[in-house]
Structures are given as structure tokens and as C-alpha cells.
Structure to design on (780 residues):
């Protein structure tokens, strides 16, 4: 035990690996013991990594610690889902490490306890800019993925309401507009994430796309998705069809080979009810309802189906025409959005507390990200605390040039 | 009373009359560590006497009488009426809206107003009074002669002591800390003569020589005439009072200004390190890193970064100026929580100095303050 203490004081990284090996060989029981003894031993070198890779088993014990997302999972689950800066970080550090934080744990515990025969519960993650809402959402989604749910993940709804190059009038309904590029992109990502479900789920009705193309009843969902990917013109309608199918079949135990739970995750929820920056051909502003994609997603938000959960996060950074100080659901969603989403379970996300900051700092030190010699000292740490006010994104940007 | 009042008023002299003619403004380039801006008059260039000695004496008399009248007018005791009281009374009786402080009405002793000037240095037959007149700088060389006399006197004293056998090297030394040699311009003012840089260096060398002798304390008074005391800067700052909350938490208020931005803060000793500005968190009020660094500097310098809660309000100007104003306000508020030595350190770090830079005025005939219109050769 003494040797353990000495070695851990000298060389934190070595002890991490040592503990990792130890646990892998001896199993879960010792892992619990190992973690506790580490945290009681020395506070300055507090533990910032946990070897518990499965989000199912994350608990309050693990708050503030980083766990690694397996690379295969990242590729499948988050082809488009993670924030761009985090993707850069994954590339630089060669690993994707996510911090376990109380809001995510809260969300996961709700998901574990929820009753899936009833209509889905809506969870909204809200908080100030840069506090980690998208990351918490990703953590919860990882949990759903490991549990084998079907994931419908809209990484940023704001991308659908602004900067669209092509806006086609809808083929099916005259008053709506299609966004073929965004829709086909999303369908591709959906395919990557949920490959194994595509052959199992069958369509319940016939869909007619054009005079020559139609999808029959009873076809696997994969075909529907391919239809959308190949034919850009009808891709937005395909999205609508896919969502409808999933809504009808989620949680149903009688269809096909077993039930699946549906997780609908939307980041940037306020885009659905806000304003768009798109213009129609006669130069008037587009309303969100007039966009097919938005309309379909709104239908998903209603809790008239069962067998899943709706996880959402608000976002001020991409939002249009909202002041920077707005972060509460009522401010960002607006009246219409709020009425539509009610009742929901709010989960607030805030800046790091002492322990979490400590862990983030140690993680950066471990990865040799903080190159400046002053940043390793106590003084430098105090400066970092002050300058970032323990806000995750600001801290990350600050450390990027150190 | 009215008549005597008039007489008193007549003795008040407008300074800018004599000021404008003999003004010779120079920064002291020779001694770079002295940063004060003194106005030096080139006295020797004025030429021989413009005002006779009787005229000056009469002015002094009138000034004294006027002083007493002024004291009576203000209802104060004429015996103990100081120059400060005179200034105060004049400012009260003659309120002036002029921005230039030197152009306002002033009543000072004629010695300060009329420049020192040389009396006529030769008699009716044209023979000079002083034996060094033909050197051209008679006062300077006579001063050098005096200093050398003193050196010789001390050497004689030393020899006497040696003869008696009472010679000791460790006699009382003159304290020179906190004072500096007079500048060349100040010496010129005293001698009413122009001297060159080499002359000045020679004089200082001689004084140093005088100081290096063991028994120099005999001439202490003479030497101190040539030294000027430096003011202790840090005693000028008024430390804001430390007040206590009902819960016993110490807090203090302070203000700060920078370039038309005004800030006022409350510094509370509660121990969390939150900073709220105009109701918002400082992270969102100052998204720019540089401004947050400005806020951080005083706290980090004193080493109390996580200790205080700051509540501030700031208005005016731009984001950088607001950050600068807040920084000054924080440093001032910290004075009441910090020891004397730290105050001096803060002053030397420049935390307590108000930045005097202000937007320069646009001049007519130019695009801006400095930028000129396009210059066309023809």
C-alpha cells in the first residue's frame, strides 16, 4: 500500500494504467474498492479518470471523472453529433473522453426508472452558454446506445433553419418547403447509427413518391432510407415517413422480432419554434412550420406515442434573434414552444464545480495539453479559475493556446 | 472699509502677465528618473533689472497689508493667515470658470511672482563690484570658491584633531536618503545665471568630495541647501473605510475612472470569487479575455483571488475603458484590506495610478487629432 502511495505521488499516469490493469484482471468488485481508496488517499492527485466505460454503471461516485468513449461507438453513434471543438479534441488526443457530470447522471437515472408503456417523457437540458449541455446529451445518448435503443439524433436543429442553399417547394404539399441536402445528410447519418434496426422494422403502409416510385407495405425500413438517400428530391418526405413509422412501432411488442425503445434527441430545440433566416422566392421570411423537416420533428415532439424518451437540449449559440443573456426554457423556446413542450422535465446544467475543474485541469496536464510552464503552478491554476470562471467551453478555449 | 478693501484687492497680481514673457518650459532631460514637470524660467536671459529693488520692497509691503485686509474680510485672524488660506479666499471671492489653472486670479508673495534678477553689477565708473565679474558667471565661480573654502576648513580641522590624537573616521554622517541633488535648472534659478552641463557636473563633484570627508557634518547646513527632499508618494492615497455588514462581513466601496468610463464597486470579504457587473456575470459581460485579465490583475497581485465577492456597476465609454476603470476601482477598494508594504508595492506596480490618457481633440484644418488632409504638392 505504501509503495502504491509513493508511486502515485510520483507518477500519476503510471498508476492509472496500473489500476486499469489491476481492475481488468480482478473484476468489478475490486474496482469499487480501488476507486474509493484512491480518492481517500490523496486529494492533490485526485482521480480524474474512471475505468468504468459503460454509462449504465456510472453513478455519483464517478462525478468529475473522465471515461473513454470507445472509438467504434463514436464512429457509429456520433457521425455528426458531437460539437466540432470536441471532435478536434478527439483527433488531437486520439481518444474521446467525456466527463461524468451530475446533469447527465440525473438524466440517465430518469431513463432507467421511466415506464415505457406510457407516453414518452420530455427532458430539456438548459443552462448558460458553454456549460456542457450538448456533452451531457451525448453522454445520455451513449447510454441509450449501449442499452440497444434506436436513436433518432438531430445534432443541431439550427442548421435546418438557416444557411440553406436549396429550398424546394414540397412535392407532396403545396405550402411547404423541402430541404433536400439537409434531409439526405441526416438520413445517411441515421443509417450509420441504426444499421441493425433497418432490416428488422417493416413499413406499415404504402408510400408513393412519384409516378414510378413507391414503397410497398411491409418493406424493411432500410429501403425507405435508401430511397431518401438516392432520390434527393423526396428526401424530406422520406424523413417524415421514417419518423412516422418509428413513432407507430416504438415499444410495440407484437411487431416483428421484439420491441425497441426509441430515443429522440434534439439539440438546439429552440430552433423548432423560433424564426428562420430563410427567405421564400418572393422575399418574405419563412416560418418554421413551412419547412417539412421542422414540421415532422415537431410531430415527434408530441407525446402521442409510447415506448421511448425525448431528450433535448436548448442552445443559444446557434439561435437566431435571441439575446445572449437568454438561457431559460421560457426565454429561448418562446410562448409557442413552451406550450408545445409542456409538460417536461427540466435539467439544469451549470459551470464546473471545484472537483470537476480539478479533474479537467488534471486531464489536460495528463495529455500534455498545457504546455506553458506557468500553467502547471498553483498561481497559474488560480488564473485559469478566474479567467474562465470554471466554464467548460471557455476553459477549453483558454487552454488551447497555452 | 471699502477703500481699504480696494487697496487690498489692488495688490492682487495677475500672474500671467509676467508669466508669458519669461517662460522657458523644459523637461529635465539630464536626470531621467525625475518625472515631475517643473517650469523653469530662463532668468539670466531677462537681462538686467526690470524692477528696482525699491519697487519689489513696495510690492512686498502691499502684499502684507493686503493679506491682513483679506483676513479681515474673510473674518479670520490676520496673524495666522497662511498662503493656503489666501488661495482659498481668492478662489471664493473671484470664482473663475477658466480651465487653465494658471490663468486664474492668484495672490502670492512677490518673491514667487517677480522673477529673481541680477542687480546692476558695476558702479558709476564702470568698475564691477565682484572680483569674479570677468569670468562671466560670477555667482557660479564664487560658489565653487565657497565650497573649496569649506573643504580646506574641514581639512584643517582634521589636521588639528590628528595633532590632538582625537582623529576618528566614524563621525556623524549626514543623512542623504530621501533627498536628491538640486537640478541644474534649480541651481540656475538660485544663482540667476546660466551654467553649462559641465559646470553643473563639476559642482556636484565638489559637493561629493565634501561629503566624502570624515568631518563633513560640520558643514551639514550648507550641504542640505543643495539637496531637495523627495516626497513619499504612497502617503497620498486615501484608503476607503472598511465597513461591516450586519453578519460581520467586511466590505468596502471604491470608484474608478478611465477615459470617460466610470465604475463603482463593492468588495465583500465572503470568500467565493464571484464577480457581478451591472447585474451580469463577468464572464458574459466581458467576453474578451483581455478585459477579464485586467479585472484579475489586482486580486492576483495581492494574492487574494478567491477571497472576495465583487459587485460592480460601470457606465460609459467602451469595453476596454470599462475594464480599466473597474481595475482601478478594485485596486482602491483592496487598499483597505491590505498592509502598508503591499500598498507601496501596488503603487509601484501601477495599480493605483489613474490612467491620464484621454481622447485628443480634433483640430481644425486636419482630419482628426493627428491625421492631416492629403498633401498635394501643387
Amino acid at each position: 500500500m505504501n509503495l502504491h502511495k509513493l508511486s502515485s505521488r510520483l507518477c500519476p499516469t503510471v498508476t492509472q494504467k496500473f489500476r486499469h490493469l489491476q481492475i481488468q484482471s480482478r473484476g468489478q468488485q475490486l474496482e469499487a474498492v480501488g476507486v474509493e481508496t484512491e480518492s481517500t488517499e490523496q486529494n492533490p492527485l485526485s482521480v480524474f479518470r474512471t475505468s468504468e466505460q459503460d454509462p449504465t454503471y456510472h453513478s455519483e461516485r464517478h462525478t468529475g471523472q473522465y471515461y473513454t468513449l470507445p472509438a467504434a461507438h463514436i464512429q457509429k453513434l456520433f457521425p455528426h453529433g458531437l460539437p466540432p471543438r470536441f471532435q478536434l479534441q478527439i483527433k488531437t488526443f486520439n481518444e474521446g473522453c467525456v466527463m461524468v457530470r451530475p446533469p447527465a447522471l440525473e438524466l440517465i437515472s430518469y431513463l432507467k426508472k421511466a415506464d415505457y408503456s406510457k407516453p414518452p417523457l420530455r427532458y430539456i437540458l438548459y443552462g448558460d452558454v458553454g456549460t456542457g449541455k450538448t456533452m451531457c446529451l451525448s453522454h445520455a445518448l451513449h447510454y441509450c446506445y449501449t442499452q440497444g435503443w434506436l436513436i433518432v439524433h438531430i445534432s443541431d436543429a439550427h442548421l435546418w433553419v438557416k444557411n440553406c442553399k436549396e429550398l424546394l417547394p414540397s412535392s407532396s404539399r403545396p405550402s411547404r418547403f423541402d430541404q433536400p441536402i439537409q434531409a439526405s445528410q441526416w438520413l445517411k447519418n441515421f443509417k450509420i447509427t441504426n444499421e441493425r434496426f433497418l432490416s428488422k422494422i417493416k413499413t406499415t403502409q404504402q408510400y408513393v413518391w412519384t409516378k414510378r416510385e413507391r414503397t410497398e407495405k411491409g418493406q424493411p425500413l432500410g429501403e425507405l432510407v435508401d430511397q431518401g438517400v438516392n432520390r434527393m428530391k423526396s428526401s424530406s418526405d422520406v424523413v417524415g415517413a421514417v419518423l412516422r413509422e418509428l413513432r407507430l412501432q416504438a415499444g410495440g411488442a407484437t411487431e416483428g422480432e421484439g420491441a425497441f425503445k426509441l430515443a429522440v434527441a434534439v439539440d438546439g430545440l429552440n430552433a423548432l419554434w423560433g424564426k428562420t433566416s430563410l427567405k421564400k422566392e418572393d422575399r418574405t421570411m419563412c416560418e418554421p412550420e413551412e419547412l417539412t423537416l421542422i414540421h415532422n420533428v415537431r410531430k415527434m415532439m408530441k407525446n402521442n406515442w409510447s415506448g421511448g424518451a425525448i431528450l433535448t437540449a436548448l442552445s443559444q449559440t446557434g439561435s437566431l434573434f435571441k439575446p445572449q443573456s437568454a438561457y431559460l426554457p421560457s426565454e429561448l423556446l418562446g410562448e409557442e414552444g413552451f406550450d408545445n413542450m409542456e409538460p417536461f422535465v427540466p435539467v439544469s446544467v451549470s459551470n464546473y464545480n471545484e472537483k470537476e475543474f480539478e479533474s479537467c485541469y488534471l486531464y489536460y496536464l495528463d495529455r500534455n495539453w498545457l504546455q506553458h510552464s506557468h500553467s502547471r503552478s498553483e498561481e497559474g491554476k488560480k488564473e485559469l479559475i478566474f479567467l474562465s470562471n470554471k466554464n467548460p467551453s471557455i476553459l477549453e478555449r483558454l487552454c488551447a493556446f497555452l | 472699509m471699502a477703500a481699504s478693501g480696494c487697496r487690498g484687492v489692488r495688490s492682487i497680481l495677475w500672474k500671467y502677465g509676467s508669466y508669458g514673457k519669461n517662460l522657458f518650459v523644459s523637461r529635465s532631460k539630464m536626470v531621467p528618473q525625475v518625472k515631475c514637470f517643473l517650469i523653469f524660467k530662463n532668468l539670466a536671459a531677462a537681462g538686467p533689472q526690470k524692477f528696482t529693488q525699491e519697487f519689489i520692497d513696495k510690492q512686498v509691503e502691499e502684499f502684507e497689508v493686503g493679506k491682513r485686509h483679506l483676513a479681515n474680510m474673510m473674518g479670520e485672524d490676520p496673524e495666522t493667515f497662511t498662503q493656503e488660506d489666501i488661495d482659498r479666499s481668492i478662489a471664493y471671492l473671484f470664482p473663475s470658470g477658466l480651465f487653465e489653472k494658471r490663468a486664474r486670479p492668484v495672490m502670492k508673495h512677490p518673491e514667487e511672482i517677480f522673477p529673481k534678477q541680477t542687480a546692476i553689477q558695476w558702479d558709476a565708473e564702470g568698475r564691477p563690484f565682484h572680483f569674479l565679474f570677468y569670468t562671466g558667471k560670477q555667482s557660479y565661480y564664487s560658489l565653487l570658491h565657497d565650497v573649496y573654502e569649506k573643504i580646506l576648513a574641514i581639512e584643517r580641522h582634521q589636521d588639528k584633531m590628528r595633532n590632538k590624537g582625537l582623529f576618528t573616521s566614524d563621525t556623524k554622517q549626514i543623512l542623504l536618503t530621501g533627498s536628491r541633488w538640486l537640478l541644474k535648472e534649480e541651481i540656475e534659478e538660485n544663482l540667476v545665471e546660466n551654467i553649462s552641463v559641465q559646470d553643473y557636473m563639476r559642482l556636484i563633484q565638489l559637493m561629493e568630495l565634501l561629503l566624502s570627508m570624515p568631518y563633513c557634518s560640520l558643514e551639514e547646513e550648507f550641504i542640505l541647501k543643495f539637496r531637495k527632499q523627495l516626497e513619499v508618494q504612497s502617503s497620498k492615497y486615501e484608503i476607503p473605510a472598511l465597513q461591516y455588514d450586519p453578519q460581520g462581513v467586511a466590505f468596502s466601496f471604491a470608484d474608478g475612472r478611465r477615459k470617460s468610463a466610470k465604475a463603482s464597486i463593492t468588495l465583500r470579504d465572503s470568500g467565493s470569487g464571484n464577480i457581478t457587473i451591472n447585474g451580469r456575470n463577468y464572464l458574459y459581460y466581458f467576453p474578451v479575455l483581455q478585459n477579464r485579465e485586467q479585472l484579475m490583475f489586482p486580486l492576483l497581485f495581492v494574492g487574494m483571488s478567491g477571497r472576495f465577492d465583487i459587485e460592480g456597476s460601470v457606465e460609459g465609454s467602451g469595453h476596454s475603458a470599462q475594464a480599466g476603470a473597474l481595475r482601478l476601482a478594485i485596486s482602491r477598494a483592496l487598499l483597505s484590506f491590505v498592509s502598508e508594504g503591499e500598498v507601496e508595492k501596488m503603487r509601484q506596480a501601477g495599480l493605483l495610478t489613474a490612467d491620464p490618457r484621454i481622447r485628443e481633440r480634433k483640430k481644425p484644418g486636419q482630419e482628426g487629432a493627428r491625421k492631416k488632409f492629403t498633401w498635394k504638392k501643387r
